[in-house]
Amino acid sequence: MIRAFKIELQAQMNTWILPAIILVLVLFSSISIFTGVYPNQEIFIASICGDTMVLLMAGAMYVGISTISDYSNGFIKHYLVSGVKRVDIIIGKYLSFILGCILILFLYPILSYLLSYFSFGGDQFFSYLLQLLSNIFMIAPFYIMMYTLFFALAILIRKEAIVVGVNIALSVALAIFPQRFLADLEILKYTPTIQIQMLCQNLDFDTTYLVLLLLGTLFCIFILYIVIQLFKRIEF
User: What transmembrane ranges does the database entry give (predicted)?
Assistant: First the structure.
């Protein structure tokens, strides 16, 4: 597993995909910053991590481009011929993918915040930065839950264009559907996207957060188990 993880990590770090996604995200956020979309620093900090559609679509594109390429370039067959177990391949790919997503979750808001400081100024640079980091740490597990689902679909579909399309559509659904029907279905407030928005607006949390965190962890383990079992049946 460690061997597969190292190979996957090195392959992903040596490509343009991750820095390109982060650069595009920061570019668009800088346009919003300097055109006055965010009236003040507080609203910017609450919005930059709470804009779930942007970060979900980034994860959808990242998994579609980075993970599926191993099927077309023959890396999967190379792993198998080299004696790497299929379980290790999946876990290695998953860990390297999640690490890349974590880099997006941290670098995109932080770099955007540094740019926003030139626009808003003020003397509370470190206090706002601490608040932003607190937001990221709190909401990261919920993003990882949804990224895990994207990863599972990518492994099972195995067609880059279809994977990107399906995961982007799923990103839009996850971001819009709970918000649209929240007033009618109160249970939707426990969905990841709504929890992310609530946490970004107010960092106070109770046992509900911990329960959802536990359920999310079990969800990720279950999804990975299903993916591993199905991956064992795929012929290369």
Answer: 16-37, 43-65, 94-116, 136-157, 164-182, 209-231
